[in-house]
Amino acid sequence: MTIINRTRRWAALCAALLFLDVSLTFTNVWPTPAIHWRGELSIELAVCLLAIACTTRWFRPPSRAMLGWLSAVWIVLVIGRYAEVTAPALYGRDVNLYWDLRLMPDVVAMVTRVAPWWLILLIVTTVVSFFWLLYRGLRWALHLVTDAMAHATERRALAGVAALTMALFVGERASARGTVERVTPAPVTYTYARQAQLVTAALSGSTSLAESPSMDSDFAGVKGADVFLIFIESYGAVSYERPEFAARLAASRARLDAAIRATDRDVVSAYVESPTFGGGSWLAHLSLLSGIEVRDPDTNALLMTQNRDTLARSFGRRGFRTVALMPGLRQSWPEGTFYGFDEIYGADRLAYRGPEFGWFAIPDQFSLDRLDALEVGRPSRPPLFVFFPTISTHFPFSPTPPYQPDWRRIATARPYDGPDIVRAYAGEPNWKDFGPGYVEAMAYDFATIEGYLRKRPDRDFVMILLGDHQPPAAVSGEAAPWDVPVHVIARRKHVLDGLLAHGFREGLTPLRPSLARMHALLPILLDAFGDRLN
Where in the sequence of the chain do the CATH 3.40.720 domains occur? Predict the structure, then answer.
C-alpha cells in the first residue's frame, strides 16, 4: 500500500470516528434549537469500538446486516441526545417521553390545521431526507471502522483509544470535578434508562391526590360584580426581572396603570409559583381552579376522573353565570364538564372573520370584544365569572396582531388597515432571539386590557390577571424561577385590602418573595372575595 493510500485511509477513518463521536456528544447552542460540538468524547462510541475490535479479533467482523441494525440504533441515540440537550434550552425542563409523546398528536394536529399543505410536505420531506442521509452517513462511518478492524495495527490503535476513553470516563466520575469540566458527557443510554424509570414509576406507582380546599364562600365581597380570571399566556416574572424586557414594557405598563386609575379602579400585585414552565398551561389552569397542585399530565388525568369542587362550580352555586372564553379551543374539551362552566365559547363559536395571527389565529382583543357581545352586554343578566386563557402571547410570539384603538371595527371582516396588517405579518419569528417578539406580544395584551378598561369605565368588575407560566427558557434564560405575576384590578376596596393582608402589594409591580404556589392562591382569593362557610 502506498503512503498516499494509507494516508487517505487514515484520514477517512478519522473522519468517520469524528462523525460518530459528534453525533452523540453535540450540545445545545443556548437558547436555540441549534447544536455545536465542544470536543467531548462519547463513551458509547468507545464501547462500540472495543466490541467491534473484540468481535473481529476472536470471531468475525460484523456483517452488513448487523451494521444496518447498528446504524438504526445509533439514530435512536442521536434523537435521544438531541432531546436531552435541547429541551432544557427551549422549555426550561428536561424531556419526559412518558408525558411528552402523548402530546405529540395534539401538536401535529395543531400544525396541520394552521400550516399550508406545501409547508407540511416540505417539512416531512426535509425530515425524511435528513434521517435517510444520517442513516447513510452512519453506515459509511461504521463500515470504515469495521474495515479498519481487519488490520492488526489499526485494530490495536482503535482499541487503545476506546480503552483510554473508558478510563477517562470512569476517572472523571470518580473525581470531584464538576460536570461542566468533563470531557466525557453522560451517556445517551443513561437518558433512555432514566425515561424507562419514569415510565415504570408512572405505571406501577399509586398516585394519591390532596384533599380539595373548601370553596363554599358567600362571595359577599364580589356580589353583583363580574369576575374575570384572565390567564395571560407566557406572562412570567422575566417580564419584570430581565432589565431589557422591563425597560421595553415600561411604557405599556404605565398606560395600563393610567387606565386603571382613570377608571377609578386600583390594582394589587404579587408573584406566585406556577406548576409548569415554558408550556403546559392547562396544569396552571387546573391547579388554580381546583386548588390541587397539578404538575404533570398524569395528575391532571387522575383529577379529571374525580368529582371535585372547582372555582367555577363555587361561583355557579352563588348565582354567577360561569363562562369559559376559549379562543384557542378547536376540539372537544371534556375538562369543561369537570370545571362546571355554564357556557364554553371555543374558536368556532367566536366566529372571527379577520386576518389570522399565529398558530391560534384569533387576536385577544377580538375575544374580549366578542365576550361583550355574547355575554356582558345582555340586559337583566346575572353576574359573570369568566375564565379566559389568552393566546396572542403564545410561543413563538410573532406575528403579533396590531392593537385596534377603534373597538367598533374589531368584530368586522376588516378590523385592521392594510399597512397595519403588512407590518404585523412582517414580524416573523426570529428563531435565534425570541425576546423582541415576546416583548411585542406582551405589550399588545397590555394594550388590549388597557383598552378594555377604558371601554368599560362604569363596569363593576374584579379582574384577575395571572401568568400561566414563564416563557420558554429561550426567553427566560437559564435556571429561571417558575414564578409568574398576578394582579387584581377592582374598585372594591375591601377585596383589595383582603389581598394586601395576604401579602399582595399596591400597584402593578410585584415584589419578592413569591406569595405562594399557584394552587394555594385559590384560598387567598376566596378569603378576599367573601366569608368562607367552612
Answer: 224-280+322-348+356-366+385-529
Cell 384603538, located at residue: 405
pTM over 0.90: no
Whether 453 contacts 259, CB under 8 Å: yes
Q: What is the CATH number of domain 224-280+322-348+356-366+385-529?
A: 3.40.720
Contacts of 471 (CB under 8 A, 6+ apart): 234, 236, 238, 278, 395, 397, 434, 438
- Pair 274, 288: CB distance under 8 Å: no
Partners of 230 in the β-ladder: 388, 465
Q: Where are the beta strands (DSSP E) in 196-341?
A: 226-232, 266-273, 321-325
Q: Measure the CA–CA gap between 264 and 251, rounded to whole angstroms.
A: 20
Identify whether the C-beta of residue 222 lies closer than 8 Å to the C-beta of residue 462: yes
CA distances to 218, 219, 330 from 532, rounded to whole Å, are 6, 8, 36
**Three-point CA angle 264, 268, 272, nearest 5°:** 150
**Cα 74 to Cα 47: distance, rounded to the nearest angstrom:** 13
**Cα atoms found within 13 Å of the Cα of residue 15, Cβ hemisphere only:** 10
How far is it, in rounded angstroms, from Cα 282 to Cα 401? 24
Query: What CA–CA distance (Å, rounded) separates 488 from 465?
Result: 6
408: its cell numbers: 367598533
Task: Return the C-alpha cell found at 59.
Answer: 470471531
Mean pLDDT of the region 32-53: 88
Contact 34, 28 (CB under 8 A): yes
pLDDT in tens, 205-229: 555 678 888 888 889 999 999 999 9
Q: What is the pLDDT of residue 310?
A: 93
On the question of pLDDT at 338 being above 90, the answer is no
Determine the Cα–Cα distance for residues 216 and 317; give it in Å rounded to an integer. Answer: 9
Cell of 268: 394589587
DSSP type of residue 470: P
pLDDT of amino acid 63: 84
Residue 246 contacts by C-beta under 8 Å, 6 or more apart in sequence? 239, 240
Between vectors from CA 470 to CA 465 and to CA 471, what angle results, nearest 5°?
A: 110
What confidence tier does 104 reach under pLDDT thresholds 50, 70, 90? low
Cell triple for residue 370? 366578542
Nearest to 521 by CA among 358, 322, 311, 364: 311
Question: Among the residues of 263-390, which ranges form H helices?
Answer: 281-290, 297-304, 311-317, 335-339, 347-350, 364-371
Residue 428 CA to its chain's centroid (Å): 19
- Tally Cβ neighbours within 10 Å of residue 72: 12
Q: How far apart are CA 404 and CA 410, in angstroms?
A: 7
Phi-psi category of 68—alpha, beta or left, where left has phi over 0 and alpha has psi -120 to 50?
A: alpha
**What burial class does residue 124 get, using C-beta atoms within 10 Å of its C-beta: 0-12 exposed, 13-18 middle, 19+ buried?**
exposed
Strand partners, 345: 325
